[in-house]
Amino acid sequence: MSTLQPINLSISEKLTVAEIQQFFSGTYNFLKIEFYKTLELNGIRITKKIENHSLLPKAAMPSIDLSHFRTVEQIKADFQRATGLIARVFRKSGNVWIETSLTDDWSLERQNAEGKLIEQTQ
């Protein structure tokens, strides 16, 4: 899967969360991405999942590099900077999706390969 070709996702306020998810999972079959925003109500901070049909907020960056060598940590930081949204990446593990938070320093390629390996051994 390794390639030197950049994989850029163009970001605009006309793009829906579902379109980003489709692009991401189409590129990395064993990974998925979800988006959240933090709200503050009466001094209490709440993290709310963004629905798939939601449009992105105005983007501060024109594109995000989703190339194989980039880490989950880098992707999450880019989405935060570009949209103000919190991104969470999940890896397929059998019949469940586990958040990659403990392995955010792994590349997208390695995360995807791990998900594929787990599926092949099932």
Sum this structure up briefly:
The protein is an alpha+beta fold. It contains 3 helices and 6 strands; from the N terminus they run E-H-E-E-E-H-E-E-H.
Task: Kindly estimate the percentage of residues that lie in beta strands according to DSSP.
Answer: 25-35%
State the secondary-structure class: alpha+beta
**What is the count of β-strands?**
6
Order of helices and strands: EHEEEHEEH
Number of H/I helices: 3
User: Termini distance?
Assistant: 22 Å
Q: How many discrete structural domains?
A: 1
Q: Could you characterize the architecture of this molecule?
A:
This protein is α+β, with helices and mostly antiparallel strands and 122 residues long. The chain has one domain (8-120). Helices cover 30% and strands 29% of the residues. The strands form two sheets. The chain has a four-stranded antiparallel beta sheet. The longest helix has 13 residues, at 108-120. It starts with 7 loop residues before the first strand and ends with a helix.
